[in-house]
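Long-time lurker, finally posting.

We've been working with NADPH-dependent FMN reductase (Paenibacillus solisilvae) and I want a structural starting point before designing mutants. I don't trust myself to interpret raw outputs, so I'm hoping someone here can both generate the structure tokens and explain anything notable. Sequence follows.
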Amino acid sequence: MTKKIGLIVGSLREHSFNRMIAEAIPELEASVEYEQISIAELPLYNGDLDRGDGPEPVRLFREAIQRVDGILIVSPEYNSGIPGVLKNALDWASTPTKTAALLRKPAGLVGATPGVKGTILSQQQIRQTLEAAQAYVLPFQKMYISQVMDKVDAERRELTDETTRKYLQRYVQQFIHWIDQVPALEG
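Top reply, 14 upvotes:
Generated this for you. Predicted structure of NADPH-dependent FMN reductase:
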């Protein structure tokens, strides 16, 4: 059976560099199916609203995560950290604790930034949040894309840098292969 990977972009901006990177992933590794999982309609997390299935956008978001075999989060770094909209989405996906959509869900992290340091600090915070939610984060592998404006054609919305394309393809392949190893973590 073909694996299904959810792609979550940690930016709401339509022309986000990270959205361009996420859109490149299916063409780089076509052995699996992909589903774009939007965070745009999620309300701010509020425990008072987190009853039953929660608000309709939250229910749909949680169901989308549960439908896929793993999630790839492609996110920028804002002020040396995790974008607020992504943190909000991960908070919604981390409850209710015993049946959370993120519980034991394999996750990979990719980040692009115009800066020279990649998204190191943001990915550390995303990893920390995912681990607190008991998701399984791909260990030892990092995918930071620095100076992204030199690696994409913004007009065509394409990742054009061949070296980055190869590294991203390898990262996605490793993530897909790693998903098969996750059951051993539970044993």
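Before you design anything, note these points.
The first helix runs from residue 17 to 28.
The chain has one domain: 4-182.
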